[in-house]
Amino acid sequence: MRDHSNHVQVTREKAVELLRDACEFDRRKETIPVQEACGRVLAEDAKAQTDIPNCLECCLDSVAVHYADFENGMPDTSEWVRGVDWEFANTGVGMPEGFDTAIVIEHVTVSDDERHITIDAAPSAKFAGTNPQGSKMRQGEVLAFENTLVTVDIMARMAMGGVTDVSVIARPTVAFIPTGNELTRIGDELKRGGHFETNGLLIAEKIRQWGGEPVLWDIVPDDRERITAAICEACTKADIVVVNAGSSKGSDDWNIEMLDEVGTVLYHQTNHGPGHHSSAAVVDGTPVVGISGPPRGAGFTADFYLRPVIKRYLRQPENLPKVKARLASEIRPGGPGAHKHMAGAKQLPGEVRPSENADGSIFYGVKFMIVRQAEDGVLEAVGVPGKPGGLSEDAVNGYYMMPSGTGVNPPQVGDFIEVDLKPWA
Ligand SMILES: Nc1nc2c(c(=O)[nH]1)N[C@H]1C(S)=C(S)[C@@H](COP(=O)(O)OP(=O)(O)OC[C@H]3O[C@@H](n4cnc5c(N)ncnc54)[C@H](O)[C@@H]3O)O[C@H]1N2
Ligand code: MOO
Q1: In a shared domain, residues 177 and 86
Q2: Which numbered atom of ligand 1 lies nearest the CA of 335?
Q3: Domain range spanning residue 340?
């Protein structure tokens, strides 16, 4: 049984900072076709391979002429020959060779047989109505900088400049190690009192959405040697490792000890719940993110702690975006430390766990919120009604860290609160 007398509890902010400092990635690069670059991060500047346009180009639908014919005023065009003195020229297309100036088609009357024209407005200067070579992009010009997340527009711009292959940061591989004797693979027969291993499904998809490559480990039983072996193997094979469950104080909760044996534990508790038993370690230079078992907390603690590590690898913004929203429904404190048997209580009933902020520090209950526009146009946040883990959670798009502790006043309906937006990417 684990010795949990020596807690390393940190705030959420400190946890992210410790994890960030522990990441010294040796990023890999790969070259992929530009058509597949959307959603990837450039490892090098992408440069135009050619001038665009690569010759004098016509601006609008026009006829192409020689400016020299207009230098002494409007010429007599009755004897003009198509292809010699004039030619059609169209928007965004190279000028017919030899022609230097364009007159928009609205100032031109074309004969029915399209061989003769009369013009009612002369061009103002040589090259009028044209775009010079290289006016959209010049060969060698940077079209997108290193570390840019390629959007559809950027992908199309690079392709426009003749870029066929791009160098991108390889997707970091993220090993997910599920632990627990009670776990059963999805599709197998459920053990008595057990659960299907669903956190792997949940977190693998998040990893993909955030730009990583999930690698799912088989369920590891609560056995010290097997846990250690799985962690060590994963740390040699993956860029980032997630160890799931086995993080608390139960008779089979070994993960923190094992991480401590093979690496350095940075922290193994945070100041919020759910998610209290989140942890982090470094094993042979590989960051290991510890996510607690209960699925309700596993999802958003991955948002809090795993996402920044993946984003750091990919050199993308790490913090979740926050919005200020008007609290639209009453929310109550919760989690250890927010219990009615608060810090300082002399005797607790046996089924109640002691406060984790008995020292008077602030503890945060993570509240699932729906952020939406109120009828008066203001952004409002509604606490998810009903039972935690219920259907109403499907609409959750934000998290609020609700403080509790001595002297802390919880927000009232109508107050503005800061909500972390749930990340989809
Ligand atoms: N006496 C105390 N008991 C507990 C405390 C405490 O402070 N004192 N903390 C509670 C809190 S908070 C949490 S969170 C959990 C943390 O538990 P673990 O991270 O050690 O997770 P397990 O005990 O292994 O499992 C808990 C629960 O989650 C299910 N689980 C685990 N892995 C998966 C998975 N991959 N997919 C789906 N479900 C999974 C597991 O079957 C259990 O039902 O401890 C509290 N207890
Ligand atoms: O760590 Mo637990 O996730 O607080 O519920």
Answers
A1: no
A2: 12
A3: 322-421
Average pLDDT for residues 45-59, to the nearest whole number? 98
Query: Is position 137 within any domain?
Result: no
Three-class HEC string of 323-358: EEEEECCCCCCCCCCCCCCCCCCCCCCCCCCCCCCC
246 neighbors 291 (Cβ within 8 angstroms): no
Q: Which of 10, 272, 292, 401 to mutate to test the pocket of ligand 2 (most atoms within 8 A of CB)?
A: 292
Cα dihedral sign for 343, 349, 350, 353? Answer: negative
What pTM does this model have? 0.91
Sequence-distant (6+) residues with CB within 8 A of 218 are none
Distance between CA atoms of residues 138 and 53, nearest Å: 9
Cβ atoms within 10 A of the Cβ of 188, count? 12
First CA to last CA across the chain, in angstroms? 39
131, β-bridge pairs: 57
**Residues 92 and 149 placed together within one structural domain of the fold:** no
CATH classification of the domain holding 73: 2.170.190.11
Q: Are 265 and 389 found together in one domain? A: no
- Both 400 and 357 in a single domain? yes
Q: How far apart are CA 299 and CA 199, in angstroms?
A: 8
Q: How many angstroms separate the alpha carbon of residue 328 from the centre of ligand 2?
A: 26
Same domain, yes or no: 182 and 272: yes
CA 297 to ligand 2: nearest atom: 3
- The amino acid at residue 253 is D
Average pLDDT, the chain: 92
pLDDT (mean) for 167-180: 98
pLDDT in tens, 65-113: 999 999 999 999 999 999 999 999 999 999 999 999 999 999 999 999 9
Domains contained in the chain, number: 4
Does residue 188 form part of some domain? yes
- The answer to whether 21 touches 10, Cβ cutoff 8 Å, is no
Inter-residue contact 211 to 171 (CB < 8 Å): yes
What distance lies between CA 157 and its chain's CA centroid? 21
Strands 269-270 and 9-10: parallel
ipTM of predicted assembly, 2 dp: 0.97
What spacing in Å lies between the alpha carbon of 295 and ligand 2's midpoint?
10
Query: Is residue 136 assigned to a domain?
Result: no
Residue 2 included in any domain: no
For the chain, percent helix, then strand, then coil, each to nearest 5? Answer: 20, 30, 50
Same domain, 259 and 393: no
